[in-house]
Amino acid sequence: MEFDTWRQENQPSALKDTPSHWIAEHSEPNPFNDVLPKSAFAEKKIWAMGGGKGGVGKSMIMSNLAISLAQRGERVIAIDLDLGGANLHTTFGIEMPRQTMSDFFERRSQTLEGCISNTPIQNLEMISGAQDHLGIANLDYDKKVLLLNEIQKLEADYILIDLGAGTNNNTIDFFNFADLGILTMLPEPTSIENAYRFIKSVFYRKLMTAQHLSPIRNWIQIAMDSKNQEGLRTPGDLYRKVNQEHPDLALKLKDEIQRIRVHLIVNQARTQSDVDLGFSIKSVCKKYFGIQVDYVGYLDYDSAVWQAIRRKRPVLLEFPNSQLASNLERMSHYLSSQKGQSGETE
Ligand SMILES: Nc1ncnc2c1ncn2[C@@H]1O[C@H](COP(=O)(O)OP(=O)(O)O)[C@@H](O)[C@H]1O
Ligand SMILES: [Mg+2]
């Protein structure tokens, strides 16, 4: 791991800050204790799309990745987990389906499978977000576990989950639950800050929910507060502390850290430095967290996107020969060749 070489003064402020609610939030119960093991449909792959901020292109990218997979003959179910702001159906060019996640949460449908709707695209089905104003952050523990288990039971080649904005605990749990977590960001200061905050949340939540790290959970929790009394300022400090006290657990910690993968997409790039941003985030995360950020690539700012959205048509279908469509297709090929986060959270 490289995190030893990263100097304090180079750290982006989003990595150093500890918002007051953050630690309590990330200490919530571990849902992965109650989630079924992955076996029902062994080959199924789950991708989750997150992003610290709204309007960065998560739904646009996810819907087009789903279409690209479906066009290649994969059976895909896209799930809109942007509860409260559900609009994934629009990106597929359809009206709000009659069945939504609300039917599942309110037990009008006993199964999540019962909420699946067809789309006009062959091989692609979707589950629309809830119609009420329940945000994902308000999803209680029991409902979260129920939903994770129901997603696990769905039968498809790919399940793609649009998580909506935010870095709340529930969002991060779905991100970490997925085989592949994709983070979309814009080359703008607020979005960059949010992306770092998102990655930091993924990192600590992953460690907090790793069963075999439970003996050092209190150290992890202390390290999450960058102003802690123990002087643990960075993930590197945490690692060194654990290595001093429990060298055997330091190996497990290292292993867990090295298995964390975040797949990054920079959207609406306009300049070369926008494109390069992905590389610098990758490098910072390697040095600071010791984790692998996989820079999937960038998408240019392209008027084809809003033209397609105005026509309520996905870019891939409306402008199949555009540069944007071919980049999205390349991304879907690349991502489907990735193994994903190896191993379970347990
Ligand atoms: N590459 C792009 N080029 C131009 N406009 C884009 C691009 N990506 C997204 N947009 C615009 O940003 C808006 C928000 O995209 P959306 O996918 O709804 O974001 P999110 O799901 O993250 O909130 C879209 O309506 C579209 O107009
Ligand atoms: Mg969206």
Q: How would the blueprint of this fold be written?
A:
Blueprint: H1 13-16, H2 22-26, E1 45-51, H3 58-71, E2 76-80, H4 88-91, H5 101-105, E3 117-118, E4 124-127, H6 141-153, E5 158-165, H7 169-177, E6 180-185, H8 189-208, H9 217-224, H10 235-245, H11 247-259, E7 261-269, H12 272-288, E8 292-300, H13 303-310, H14 315-318, H15 323-336
Helix pairs in contact: 3-15, 7-8, 10-11
Bound molecules: adenosine-5'-diphosphate and magnesium ion.
Describe the structure.
This protein has 346 residues and is of the alpha/beta class. It has a single domain (14-209, 260-336), classed as P-loop containing nucleotide triphosphate hydrolases (Rossmann fold, 3-Layer(aba) Sandwich), CATH 3.40.50. It has 15 helices and 8 strands. The protein has an 8-stranded mixed sheet with strand order 3-4-2-5-1-6-7-8, sandwiched between helices. Helix 10 runs antiparallel to helix 11. It is globular, with a radius of gyration of 20 Å. The protein starts with 12 loop residues before the first helix and ends in a 10-residue tail after the last helix. 45% of the residues are buried. Residues 342-346 have low confidence and may be disordered. Bound molecules: adenosine-5'-diphosphate and magnesium ion (MG). Adenosine-5'-diphosphate binds next to helix 3, strand 7 and helix 13.
